[in-house]
Amino acid sequence: MDDNNTSLKEVVAAYLRNHPEFLDDYPDILEILQLDHRTGVAASLIERQVEQLRHKNQDLSRQLNRLVHVAAENEQLMTRLHRLTLSLMTLNSRKAFFTQLGNSLLNDFKADILQICLFDKELADEAGKDVKHIQHDDPDVEQFSTHLERNRTVCGRLNENKLEFLFGTKARWVQSTALVPLGENGVYGMMAIGSSDAARFYPGMGTLFLDLLSDVIANSLSDSEVQEQRRSA
Questions:
Q1: Are 23 and 29 spatial neighbours (Cβ–Cβ below 8 Å)?
Q2: Among 50, 70, 79, 193, whose CB has the most other CB atoms within 10 angstroms?
């Protein structure tokens, strides 16, 4: 058994002597080698290991910096959402509510264009000219059913028909969109935020801010329904 082991070691050693580039082709082996600092050969390989680890640490540092940057952005967004929510709570007018909402999104969220669509005509009329009324059974609305049923914000590029329905003549400038259902499965309608930057809204991006903002809007619309029911009782 010992002879076989010795023979195998010699084969491996001979192969490495004849193929010094072997570790260049298989750098992952460097990460698991057990080496002694006291020999000159070991010192050479250790330097290679250190170099490998240095590169990995640099990658980890870049990843950590990205996470810190994202965390800082999220903190800023949550602060803005908190301030916006407090300001919206003080408004008694439906029109003032949606005007303040639109201004905040266009300025704080750096959107190029905003379109809010509501199924309830009375609510849409009260919200002002910047809010669009749409029929729930409108054939053009059917194309958004999949987005609304996801019950969360969907980001990315929309096809030409959807863009024209949402943004009209301004659709040609929109390269990426965040589509936000209002209420569960979009029961109240939807909000579309468009950008001329194709990379501004992309699939997989974080949407917590917009999902929470959707809840704020839905709660406001829900309160109006309750008040209307009380007036009718």
A1: yes
A2: 193
Let me know if residue 200 belongs to a domain. yes
φ, ψ of residue 191 in degrees (nearest 5): -125, 130
- DSSP state for residue 46 in the 8-state scheme: H
Contacts of 77 (CB under 8 A, 6+ apart): 208, 209
In a domain, 69, yes or no: no
Range of the domain at 182: 93-232
Q: What angle do CA 3, 8, 14 make, to 5 degrees?
A: 125
Q: Percent of the chain at pLDDT above 70? A: 85
Whether the pLDDT of residue 145 is over 50: the answer is: yes
Q: Is residue 32 part of a domain?
A: no
Task: Tell me which range, 28-42, 79-93, 148-162, is most confidently predicted by mean pLDDT.
Answer: 148-162
Q: Domain count of the chain?
A: 1
The answer to whether residue 86 scores a pLDDT higher than 70 is yes
166: closest CA among 122, 130, 117?
117
- Write the CATH number for 205: 3.30.450.40
Tell me, yes or no, whether 148 lies in a domain. Answer: yes
Q: Between the CA of residue 88 and those of 96, 128, 133, what are the distances in Å? A: 8, 16, 21
